[in-house]
Amino acid sequence: MNNNNQLMPDKGLFAGVNPIMAVGSAALIIAFVLFTVINPEFAGSVYSAAKNYIASDLAWYYIGLMSLFLFLAVWLVFSRYGDIRLGKDSDRPEFTNFAWFSMLFGAGIGIGILFWSIAEPIYHFQSNPLIAEGQEKTVEAAQVAMRISIFHWGLHPWAIYAVVALALAFFSFNHGLPLTMRSVFYPLFGEATWGPLGHIIDVLAVFATIFGLATSLGLGATQALAGLNYLFDVPITDGMKVLLIIVITVFALVSVVAGLDKGVKRLSEANMILAAALLLLVIIVGPTVAILSGFFTNLVDYVIFLPELSNWVGREDTNFMQGWTAFYWAWWISWSPFVGMFIARISRGRTIREFVVCVLLIPTVVGALWMSVFGGAALDMVMGDNGQALKDAALELKMFKMFESFPMTGILSFVGIILVVVFFVTSSDSGSLVIDTITAGGKTDAPTAQRV
Question: What are the Cα distances from residue 334, in Å, to 142, 216, 308?
Fold first, then answer.
């Protein structure tokens, strides 16, 4: 049934790799980058026009599609398929719950939540389309800002991750198909999946992974350099950004060469512990009571307004829906092949019900807690008398500006920089392993040279 591995030579430059996938995806990415670099003004106009078209004409599609994935994920939990185990009936989870969750959280959210957990609530508080006129800059406006922010990082993104990952894991572990995106389409296209049509599907998955990751890694490099400038006066220049990316990539290289168990798993666990430590520090030194009470209020508020925010019909906040929600959903969709495949790879032995419940609920609750702690502390400052500097700070500096108002500013800022770097490495490693798997025809033991 699977003719995919027949395309991979045993010797030579492309040993263990599908040359069509390796060359095709690399050529497409290089062409895309050259097009951008050679004429950035024209490329910018093309990308801007495409973005505007998607936002204005396809917002309904993205919002409807993501809601459909959430409905499907919830249905799977309560369906008769929930007891099916991913793999053989005798298979049990390869990783502990902590290691498993650390890896899926690091791959699925990564740097983005560090960057936006402060910036987004502040932005929505200052410019809130869902608040009644005359109620701007009030406690109610802050509540709505938190609701919107949690919505963009909550159940919907994890639903598409869960469904894509489940499809990949089921066809790979239960039906022996290669762990690549094309396998999901085998029930639709049959043997054609292993031909040109399958190559196109996998090349597009590599393309989406590369540029979906590039967005977040670019944000991470910018934020890390801003923190280094804030603490140590490191100059913010394009050359320094490139140097920082090279240094971080060297760390990522060491981790990805070590492999999933020795490299990515251990780094993800360390990353989770470091994130928990920073979260706890902010709760302790920040407005503790407001943060803790706000978390439960925000979570309940998010659930109550989830249907309203998931709807695209008759909305009066069109610009917000198109510019924010549709953009976020497109971003999550671009990440779904890479995150879905990575989650699938680490989830053998779990039942469908256990898998979907954990992938949906645990990251959503942790994300809401993170957003409530960092976003709640930031809004508490902005609504007070000393929040002007935080409001005026550049996006990449907001976390460090917020730490200025807390004790142990230097320690918090330094831990924040380290966390950004480690998130950068875990996201990069996850993406590298996924791209290796796709271009190696679904094999999870791609050659070390290819990982490099």
Answer: 30, 12, 24
Q: Which single residue is written with the structure tokens 């939540």? A: 113
Instruction: Output the pTM of the full model.
Output: 0.90
Mean pLDDT of 118-125: 91
Rounded Cα distance between 392 and 403, Å, is: 15
> CB under 8 Å to 287, separation ≥6 — which residues?
376, 377, 380
What are the φ/ψ torsions at residue 85 (nearest 5 degrees)?
A: -95, 140
How many CB atoms are located within 10 Å of the residue 379 CB? Answer: 28
* Amino acid, single-letter form, for residue 273: I
| Two structure tokens written together for 401 | 């500006």
- Buried b or exposed e, range 196-209, using 16+ CB within 10 angstroms: eebbebbbebbbbb
DSSP state, residue 85: B
> Residue 351: helix, strand or coil by DSSP?
strand
Q: Under 8 Å CB-to-CB from 271, ≥6 apart: which residues?
A: 102, 106, 419, 422, 423, 426
Are 1 and 177 in contact by the 8 Å Cβ rule? The answer is: yes
The tokens for 351 are 């039942």
Give pLDDT, residue 10: 56
State the Cα–Cα distance between residues 406 and 168, nearest whole angstrom.
Answer: 45
- The token duo for 315 is 């909305």
273-280 long-range contacts (CB < 8 A, ≥24 apart) are 274/415, 274/418, 274/419, 274/422, 275/370, 275/419, 277/415, 278/412, 278/415, 278/416, 278/419, 279/369, 279/370, 279/373
In Å, how far are 56, 130, 133, 239, 276 from 318, measured between CA atoms? 9, 11, 17, 39, 37
Quick: pLDDT tens for 5-39: 545 555 555 566 777 887 888 898 999 999 999 99
Q: Is the C-alpha dihedral spanning 315, 316, 317, 323 positive or negative?
A: positive
